[in-house]
Amino acid sequence: MQNIQDVFNRIQESKKETRSIKLLYKDALESSGEYREIAEKLEQLRARKKQLEGIAWEEAGSRDKFETTKLDLKQDREMLSDLALSTLMKGETVKVVDQDNNEYEPLFSVRFKKANVIS
């Protein structure tokens, strides 16, 4: 079995390597005049797209309701995760069923973030 620190170190090295490759890629693109022209056109089109989306939201008149519903959905997902973890920690089986009688079981994952250690 591999050591968790060795795997973490390998991931960190791979991240560094992908960053350096991305920088080389971006430098190659930036040196291309045609790429810069297309990028400028793309920015203009994005700005126009934003304008059209804004007009559509105004016509629909439901932007606030959309944002509220989106926030509620995020909060409900967090609550569902908390409840599933609590239920699992009690030793109980965790599953939910949708309207079509499809069963869902939880999928847990572990992520690491840098610890806030003051040196």
Which keywords apply here?
single chain; 119 residues; mainly alpha; two-stranded antiparallel ribbon; 3 helices; 69% helix; flat
What's this model, at a glance?
By secondary structure, the chain is mainly alpha-helical.
Low-confidence stretches: none
Number of helices: 3
The counted number of beta strands is 2
Mean pLDDT: 90
Strand order across the biggest sheet? 1-2
Distance between the termini: 33 Å
Helicity range of the residues? 55-70%
What Rg, in angstroms, do the CA atoms define? 23 Å
Beta-strand portion reads under 5%
The largest pleated sheet is described as: 2 strands, antiparallel
Tell me the layout of helices and strands.
Blueprint: H1 4-30, H2 33-60, H3 63-89, E1 96-97, E2 103-104
Antiparallel strand pairs: 1-2
Walk me through this protein's architecture.
The protein has 119 residues and is mostly helical. The protein has a domain at 62-106. It contains three helices and two strands. It has helices at residues 4-30, 33-60, 63-89, and strands spanning 96-97, 103-104. The chain has a two-stranded antiparallel ribbon with strand order 1-2. A hairpin with a 5-residue loop joins strand 1 and strand 2. The longest helix is centred in the middle third of the chain and has 28 residues, at 33-60. The radius of gyration is 23 Å and the shape is flat. The mean pLDDT is 90.
